[in-house]
Amino acid sequence: MNTPKQAVSYKTGEMIAAKFLVNNGYTIICQNYRLRCGEIDIIVEKDQHLVFVEVKSRTSPYLNAALASVSYTKQKRISRTAQLYINQNPSYANHYFRFDVIVVNYCRMTETYSVKHFEDAFYFIEES
Predict the structure, then answer these.
(1) Which CATH class is domain 4-122?
(2) pLDDT tens, residue by residue, 80-119
(3) Residue 86 and residue 99: Cα distance in Å, rounded?
């Protein structure tokens, strides 16, 4: 269960990630897309690419831990949700698609946020 402080941190991380993407030329299509099989934090478009973004908010500077938290099971759920999104939105059927991870790190000492964007962080995982 999330504490209120964690919930604020999560929402702040997604807000910062969305702003980062817009500032880098992406168009936000959807945020917090939820289905029974999973959730996608942010869906963006740029240059005929539809990008499904998982956002991780951390206070630790160790990126490996944040990336490792996007487990195989999580990747599979995101892949399935992305597939259903494309099926429900056929206007994106001819787009290339990829899965990115954005890590938003809060530094307590400086009270600042940093953003690391990992393009093609993982590949589509088919249902077995």
Answers:
(1) alpha beta
(2) 999 999 999 999 989 999 999 999 998 888 888 999 999 9
(3) 13
SS percent in the chain: helix, strand, coil, step 5: 35, 40, 25
| 7/60: higher pLDDT | 60
Rounded Cα gap, residues 66 and 87, in angstroms: 30
Query: DSSP for 75-93?
Result: HHHHHHHHHHHHHH-GGGT
| Furthest C-alpha separation in the chain | 47
**pLDDT higher for 62 or 56?**
56
> Please, which contacts does 109-114 make with residues 24 or more away whose CB atoms are closer than 8 Å?
113/12, 113/16
